[in-house]
Amino acid sequence: SVLVVGSVNADVTVRAARIPAPGETVLGEEARVSPGGKGANQAVAAALAGSSVTLCGAVGRDTFRAPALSGLTRAGVNLAHLHELAAPTGLALITVAASGENAITVASGANARVTPAYLPTDLSGFTHLLLQNELPSEVNREAARHAHAAGLTVLYNAAPARDPDPDLLAHTHHLIVNEHELAAFASGGGEALETQARALLTRGPRAVTVTLGARGSLTVTADAVDRLPAFPVTPVDTTGAGDTFCGVLTAWLAQGHPLPTALHAAGVAAALACTRPGAQDAMPDRAEIAAALAR
Ligand code: ADP
């Protein structure tokens, strides 16, 4: 079973003609409140894909708690290690312009108050740990160290990009990044993606996956390179594609599938998530992934 240690947010999205300039006010349509946060999104994707999933993180006791948790509850994610703090629930304020561009401000709230003391001490029920970059780095470092020592497989989606933590990387089995996040690890020099990804194999991970949007993904291990084209879809909203990829990859590995099979399923699921608006609302379930794989 899968343990996700990560962020939980409510996303407040407003569509407006354009993104306001500094000091400016722009009138938009009505706000939409939906569940988000990379940790919650990935937990939901993994649970919908058929895994037993537990989320460790924190929310507040305010009005945004319920919308932040709605997707997790619906997907059946175990919230026994979700802490309720006297701090505001994490909030992402998203403006989407008519051009399709967006501007996002994240108020981390309770997510920033998570400490290593909140991590489950008994990891014996879990086989896989999945991390992202929306909790304090000492939480990630401690979770990875403990999980690695307990024999779990540690997957780390280094998103959003931040300064690499060598200790976290050393305890990661599988690193997942997009091209932009890969650049945060690279030493510069403009080398080919495969060379940059391969260089990271010397720093801890035994697999590195680079997601490439509509160009699919590239995964390197010590003895193989797996280039997967994207599953062809007509995208309407790519929000949550990366989170779907990470959640489903982890779920399929936890269900015992070999890496190439799990990567294929993750790519198909992420593409399906692009065919509907929203993040958690757009994620496919196990039956839809299986049907697409059979096509
Ligand atoms: P992020 O959203 O984190 O930047 P990517 O844009 O690389 O991540 O997308 C993650 C994965 O989602 C890709 O590896 C691919 O499998 C899938 N994906 C994203 N955009 C598309 C698309 N337009 N068509 C098909 N699959 C897509």
What features would you describe in this structure?
The chain has 295 residues and is of the alpha/beta class. It has one domain: UDP-N-acetylmuramoyl-L-alanine:D-glutamate ligase (3-Layer(aba) Sandwich), CATH 3.40.1190.20. It is built from 9 helices and 13 strands. It has helices at residues 38-48, 65-75, 137-149, 166-170, 179-185, 193-200, 241-254, 259-273, 286-294, and strands spanning 2-5, 9-16, 32-36, 53-59, 82-84, 90-97, 102-107, 128-131, 153-157, 174-178, 207-211, 217-221, 224-228. The strands form 2 sheets. Strands 5-4-1-8-9-10-11-12-13 form a 9-stranded mixed β-sheet, with helices on both faces. Strand 12 (217-221) and strand 13 (224-228) form a beta hairpin. It is globular, with a radius of gyration of 18 Å. The protein starts with a strand and ends with a helix. The mean pLDDT is 96. The protein binds adenosine-5'-diphosphate. Adenosine-5'-diphosphate (ADP) binds at residues 159, 178, 211-214, 216-217, 230-231, 233, 235, 238, 241-242, 245, 267, 270-271, 274.
